Amino acid sequence: MVMVNRRELVNILDKVKPGLAKKEFIQQSNTFAFMSGRVVTYNDSISVSYPIKELDFVGAVQAKEFYELLNKLSSDEVLLSVEDNNLVVSSDKSRAGFVLQSDIMLPLSEVEKAKSDSWIPVPSNLKDALAFSLFSCARDIGIPAFTCVHLNEKGYVESTDDVRITRYKVNGSFPTSVLIQSSSVKALLDYDFTEMSFGNSWIHFRDNTGLVFSCRLFSGRFPDIEASGILNVQGETVVFPSNLIDMLDRALVFAKNFNSYDLIRTGIPLLDVSFKDKLFKVKIQSESGWFEEFVELDYEGPIVSFSANPLLLRDIVDKTDRCIVGKRCVKFQNDEWEHVIALAVRTE
């Protein structure tokens, strides 16, 4: 038996929760597996492990009930012990027993182990690049590679849904090019990793605490953005209205139930943007209502219309005050990234 700090244990379990499956398609994929000094989760796409040296037993417990009980206890410390195939939690006057599956059935052998000499520093702006690129990942699996973020060996983080393309230059390069599923990338953003390791079928990240976050790589092909020339948008430079940030903040009232990384859910309202007759107009509509606003703009060219994620556009206008309007695309850029959106087809 061992006495542990309850809050610290809950925090550790929080860190490994991304590796839990919502449904148990794989045996024990909805359990916390304790393996002689580490706690591990695995759901076929993600595996997370964290050192917890105080717990030197081997066994798996159902994650939901174990986690919820620890959260509801009020004592600072809890006593954990193994009794008759149960993991027993004792706290003040309460005791609870969780069936302890003594055989670890998780197929952890599928998680390609990182070689000791394969770890490299994580580029300092990788997290920003991943977060920014998530906006352009496809939401459906029509083209599976488009639901992923591409780490280009030249040091670019890329994504596309065939309507928009994002390319972000990190401070460094990668040993090879890989595809990571957007759902895995979203989970990665909750951590501050210092090192990464590239394998043939898995990529690993770790931090200074000893946490290791492993993602299964996708084996599809990502388009060669550089060779396509699609980022080479030629056209008129349009300077945004000076009050565009305020306009977007008002429009974001109708996207308030979402956050910057909430891209796996469907239904986030898109922002419609148009330039017409020297007017710049934004419009957004959600289940709760709609908002539109227009302002004068120094632009007299053809009608321009496109749809954008309102959270992304708000982020973009914090970083640049202009865009390039081409024949088929509008392009936003700064020194680190490029973002291109296809223009809507006009019939009038």
The biggest beta sheet is recorded as: 16 strands, antiparallel
Task: Using the coordinates above, name the CATH class of the largest domain.
Answer: Alpha Beta
> Helical element count?
7
Q: What is the molecular shape?
A: elongated
Radius of gyration: 24 Å
Question: Into how many domains do the coordinates divide?
Answer: 3
The helix content is 10-25%
- The percent range for strand residues is 35-45%
**Strand tally:** 24
Q: Which structural class do you get from the secondary structure elements?
A: alpha+beta
- Give the end-to-end Cα distance, rounded to a whole number of Å: 76 Å
CATH architecture of the largest domain: Roll
Uncertain runs are none
| Mean pLDDT over the residues | 91
